[in-house]
Amino acid sequence: MKNKETCSRLNRVGGQAVLEGIMMKAGDNCCTACRLENGEVAVNDRKFVSVRKKHKWLNIPILRGVINFIEMMMLSYSTLTASAEMLGIDEEAEETKAEKWMKKHLGIKLFDILMVIALILGVALCLGLFIYLPTLAVSGVASLFGIEELGIWRAVPEGFLKIAIFILYIYLVSLMPDIRRTFEYHGAEHKSIACFEAGVELTPENAKKYTRFHPRCGTSFLFVMLFIGIIVSLFIPASLNNILRSVIKLLLVPVIVGLGYEFILFAGKHPNALTRILSAPGLWMQRLTTREPDEKQLEVAIIAMKCALPEEFPDFDRDAYIKKPEESKTDEGKAEA
After folding, report:
1. Which residues contact 22 (CB under 8 A, 6 or more apart)?
2. Which of 100, 158, 217, 249 has the fewest CB atoms within 10 Å, counting from its CB?
3. Can you name the residues that pair with 35 across neighbouring β-strands?
4. Which residues are CB-neighbours of 225 under 8 A, at least 6 positions away?
5. How confident is the model at residue 117 (pLDDT cuts 50, 70, 90)?
């Protein structure tokens, strides 16, 4: 049986892999740690207070999952932007006159605009690939074989085609070197969280022994949503045209997100045979979205976690591990002088 300390650590911390680093979130504390080119670790601390803390009625089941999803999307976007700034990606190219004008008069950077455009295009791509394309493809195959009516079971081939597209998409992006390295940090995030939840001393050597698969992972959440989407889609009339059917599916996304959140929350708090069986497909997908990290990547994950949990690690001397980006620049300036 698990002791009280171990049980109290479950669901205490979550994270996200970013560019050359990891963001850890514990309560309102968010800490992003990134490995710079010079080998130092840069860190960014901030607070992220959920609107559910201010308005308790938003914590009702299903609705809380929708709110959490929206907030995590916002946090994910801002964290990716912060990691890019920490690594100096948005400062590599010399600013043009137009960029300087935008920064001075509008208070925004071209990099920020590009990030927003990329986000919009990403959402559009997801809607096309995972909502409209499966509906159109199943209709096309049915017409090819002269099947006029598929009935309520039309949702089944649509759902499994959606899952196949999702797996293929993840596999293809995992072949990209930069994405593969991000997946290694994803594995470091999971291993360090597993080590922490087990109540074991948090070191790279100890964390390396733990699994890189975690039931509360966003990959598992997406996979659960795909399966729930099949069940929910069974209630959409199969006689509707493809566009209307796709619009209804889009409108039902909040319901699917809410149900998926409740399942992931339950599975994380009740690790038993049933939840392990139901979580198995999502955990299997993590074989693609996580990779085995090295000890330096685990060190970054541990730094981010300890900074996000100051009450758990009061003796952690972050200055012994961390050199802020501005300190590195100062040192470089002294060296050049």
Report:
1. 15, 16, 32, 33, 185, 188, 189, 300, 301, 304
2. 100
3. 41
4. 256, 257, 260
5. confident
Q: Where do we find the tokens 């002088």? A: 337
List residues bridging with 30 in a β-sheet: 25, 46
Q: State the angle between helix axes of 133-144 and 155-174 in degrees (0 to 180), rounded to the nearest 10.
A: 120
Map residue 157 onto helix, strand or coil.
Answer: helix
Question: What is the pTM assigned to this prediction?
Answer: 0.79
Structure tokens at 241: 């045209």
Backbone conformation region of residue 7, classed left if phi is above 0, alpha if psi is from -120 to 50, else beta:
alpha
- The pLDDT tens digits of the residues spanning 70-108 come to 998 888 888 888 888 888 765 544 556 655 665 665 666
Q: Which residues contact 115 (CB under 8 A, 6 or more apart)?
A: 77, 80, 81
Question: pLDDT tier at 180 (50, 70, 90 boundaries)?
Answer: very high
Give the separation between CA 325 and CA 43, rounded to whole angstroms.
8
Q: Rounded CA gap, 113 and 134, in Å?
A: 31
Torsion 188-191-197-203 (CA) sign: negative
β partners of residue 18? 21
Closest among 8, 292, 243 to 132, alpha carbons compared: 243
Count Cβ neighbours within 10 Å for each residue of 79-111 and write b for 16 or more, e otherwise: bbbbbbbbbeebeeeeeeeebeebeeeeeebbb
The count of other CB atoms within 10 Å of the CB of residue 292 is: 12
The gap from C-alpha 143 to its chain's centroid, in whole angstroms, comes to: 38
Strand order of the β-sheet with 21-26 is 14-18, 21-26, 29-35, 41-47
Beta bridge partners of 42: 34
Q: Decide: residue 130, CB within 10 A, 0-12 exposed, 13-18 middle, 19+ buried.
A: buried
Please, are residues 119 and 111 in contact by the beta-carbon 8 Å criterion? Answer: no
DSSP string, 52-105: HHH-GGGGSTTHHHHHHHHHHHHHHHHHHHHHHHHHTGGGSSPPPHHHHHIIII
46 forms beta bridges with 30
